[in-house]
Amino acid sequence: MQNTVFRHVLLVCKARHERAWELGCEILQWLRAQGHTAVMIEAGHEDSAYAVELDFVVVLGGDGTMLGVARRMVGRSVPLFGINFGRVGFLTDAQPEHWEERLVACLKGELAVRTCLALSWKLTRGGSLQAGGSAVNDVVLSRGSLSRLVCVNITVDGQRMGLLRSDGIILSTPVGSSGYSVSAGGPLLYSGMNAVAFTPICPFLNTISPMVFPGKTVFSMRIEAGSTDCYITVDGQEGQRLEIGDLVEVTGLPAAVRFMGDEISFFERLRTRGFVLERASGAGAEKA
């Protein structure tokens, strides 16, 4: 089988996971035998490892590994295909024992490609850019170990929303809305929506409710006096401490990430991953 559409393939294996690495080696040889140019790295490599010509990325790991790779692929129009070595596997499509049949279907173009919104964020301190990047799941502003409120002055597309005193704020993509955001009382966004979920975490006196905004909305959040031990966290994987006066700006990047897999319904995906429970009629028992 010769495929020219996905000629350059990158395999990324979950860090320090022996079974994922062993299967990766097997897939690497298989791809090369099919005429593909394929290389393999362990997750956690520097961004330069991804700065090569790519048509397709195969990720052997769980949702965390998928998120780390997806952030590096934002805006590159390179589809990602996941083989699950994690627990939930919401972003992955195949189980290890079925890798070959699923990969053949990918390379033949038989699987669907989902284009998903990502987030762009930047941190400015004293007028100087301190940090920035992309997020696939969410950007979170939150308090540290002490049970004290974070005070954030929020502006949305240049219009002042107000001062929010809370444990934090979650800005989530549709992909990430089934994670921290929904657990904090935020909305579950339909897959493929060009939208961002805004979810306050335990807001003082419930001053601001969770909301859904258009994908290109610009959120400007300034840390105000009264905040102690405040942090920004990206996809639950990257983060740093914030200071009073820091400005965090977040906006959506439509169709920035591409995932490849079965074209199953949104609700079927939620059911098979345990996010929706059905009660069997007359049995009184719940099932996934």
UniProtKB/TrEMBL annotation:
Catalytic function, reaction form: NAD(+) + ATP = ADP + NADP(+) + H(+)
The entry's keywords: ATP-binding, Cytoplasm, Kinase, NAD, NADP, Nucleotide-binding, Transferase
Presence of keyword Transferase: yes
CC annotations in GO: cytoplasm
Active site, UniProt feature: 63
Predominant subcellular localization, coarse grouping: cytoplasm
SUPFAM superfamilies (alphabetical): NAD kinase/diacylglycerol kinase-like
Entry's localization field: Cytoplasm
Superkingdom of origin: Bacteria
InterPro entries the UniProt entry points to: ATP-NAD_kinase_N, ATP-NAD_kinase_PpnK-typ_C, NAD/diacylglycerol_kinase_sf, NADK
MF-aspect GO terms: ATP binding; metal ion binding; NAD binding; NAD+ kinase activity
KW Ribonucleoprotein (keyword) present: no
Enzyme nomenclature, EC number: 2.7.1.23
Residue positions binding NAD(+): 63-64, 137-138, 148, 165, 167, 175, 178-183, 237
Gene Ontology BP terms: NAD+ metabolic process; NADP+ biosynthetic process
EC class (word): transferase
Name of one Pfam family that matches: NAD_kinase_C
Cofactor(s) demanded: a divalent metal cation
Protein task: Involved in the regulation of the intracellular balance of NAD and NADP, and is a key enzyme in the biosynthesis of NADP. Catalyzes specifically the phosphorylation on 2'-hydroxyl of the adenosine moiety of NAD to yield NADP.
Family designation: Belongs to the NAD kinase family.
Name of the protein in question: NAD kinase
Organism this protein belongs to: Desulfovibrio fairfieldensis
